[in-house]
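User: Fold this; tokens only.

Assistant: Input:
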Amino acid sequence: MERDYTRSATNAFPVHVLPERLQRIIRELHDSNGFPVDYTAASMMAAISVAVGNSHRVEVKRNWHESAILYIAIVGRPGACKSHPLAFAMRPLVNADWKNNLDYQKKYAEYQQAIAMSRKERVHAGFEQFPKEPKRLRYLVSDVTQEGLSAIHSHNPRGLCLWVDELSAWFKNFTRYNNGSEEQFWLSAFNGSTTMSDRKNCQNSIFIKRPFISVVGTIQKRLLTELANGERTANGLAQSSFALLRGH
């Protein structure tokens, strides 16, 4: 008898709304590797979110548009197989970032070679007369500061995903430089609000009209209460995250 993976009482995630091909992958990963159905499905949603990025938006009402930004917390006890489904879903993005990085390193080496020449030597060697420094294309970021994230996003307007294996570390970093500003940044980023970043000792500002930054990671049940501590309940941060909780 075929098991019903989509409507089991222990798997409340509505897998049946996904395309059949994704449902089949979720079932096979559950049978072969023991990946929890809801963890795999949510991880796929996170990967699809950043793949869509700023390419599409939904018009809910006139002048009200929503993007595919998702904040997802996969919650479970140690050993609950939280990280493996997430790593599986993110693999295509990791591979794309790896290829983009190889291409960037090649172009950056050529750029350094070109700027070391005189203008006449560049033209003779086939380089641009005024070479531009290449930009690294990417989908994923990990341990990054708010300022660094803004700079990376300015080179990748389609969007990014912050992938952290342990979300508890992400929460603790909110006040590593000043009190509360980073938390407010992530609240604004979830809403897709325009961001402006003024670098210290720099005349140029980073202006991102339509930011797209999804967040995904894992967290243990006993640390989940930190998400709703203090002002995080009042300011909407806890409500911004879609949490998958397994076990008791």
